Amino acid sequence: MRIGLISSPWVPVPPPAYGGTEAIVDRLARGLIAAGHDVLLAAPGDSTCPVRQVTPIPVAADYQTGEGEVELSYVVRAYAAMGSVDLVHDHTLAGPLYARRPPEIPIVATNHGPFHGAFADIYRAAAHSAYIVAISAHQASTASGIEIARVIHHGVDVEHVPLGTGRGGYAVFLGRMSPDKGPKEALVAAREAGLRLVLAGRCRGRLEENYFAEHVAPLLGRKAEFVGEIDATRRYELLGAAAVLLNPIQWDEPFGLTMIESLACGTPVVATPYGSVPEIVEQGITGYMSADPAQLVTALRKAGLLDRSACREAAEDRFSTDLMVAEHLRLYDDVLSGRCRLST
Asked: How many angstroms separate the CA atoms of 36 and 83, rounded?
């Protein structure tokens, strides 16, 4: 099968640090090649994913991130190169609505964000001509009036992730410095539990920097350290040595990639039960979930007693890259054979 993959225009594939969507596109591209398929990837020109790529597309500057004209120009260039593929899998927001894409080539589109607000309008329109993929059952349940072709969880290269020991004894938080990710709640919970907390993640732009200065920096100290953005190697080192990943998200996150990376390291997860969390964390086996701050503190104190091998096995059995690739290939085959339907 000849498959065109269109990643986002903002971050290279794979990402040097922050970039969940781009990490998934990288794993999917490499997995499809390993399964014997031909892949053509449209991604920013500084991408290093080892697959055939569209003639280098200009790299968006940091200040251009999110600008509509940048994404539209990128989509035009990407689709211009896709005339010889059997199917296009688009991970951009604008691409599924592009009118000049090759009309005879079916489009699969993954929504990496929510299905409400402006996203609902976009994907409700896109679903008439593209097969929409949700990344969790909870996310799909919010897609009112949108035909969902498949729910496919993200995957991680478990076999390439070192199994950690947790001997660092600390809790770790990985995520943007944003109120919806819950770094302030993580700091408060870890302090109440008497655990050292290491926070890593993006802090860029006025909103994130202001939030950090007002809500995070005042809570840092001897037992709470912020180490900034980190690459994949350092992320797995931090996760592997941690006793627990603390993920007190404050919104219905469509999928928590950090949680499955933690499980791959053998590190249990303590999280709030929002969005995709109940699809990832098995209560009392691979972690604990609670919306009650006091119960989160209790969970932090006992999470280190959970069986780390059970966490690793959950990642292998339920969230491997191989499984993610196989589910996408089944979807592609169903689309090409006419077994999937579009919104009417």
From this structure: 20
- In CATH, what number is assigned to the domain containing residue 139? 3.40.50.2000
Q: With b meaning 16 or more CB within 10 Å and e meaning fewer, what string describes 224-239? A: bebeebbebeebbbbb
Closest CA to 7 of 130, 117, 91, 104: 91
Q: What is the pLDDT of residues 119-156, one digit of tens each?
A: 999 999 999 999 999 999 999 999 999 999 999 999 99
Q: What is the phi/psi pair of residue 111, to 5°? A: -95, 115
Which residues fall within 8 angstroms of residue 42, CB to CB, at 6 or more apart?
A: 4, 5, 6, 7, 53, 54, 57, 74, 77, 78, 81, 82
Whole-model pTM: value is 0.94
Q: Are residues 84 and 225 in the same domain?
A: no
CB 183 within 8 A of CB 216: yes
End-to-end, the C-alpha distance of the chain in Å comes to 27
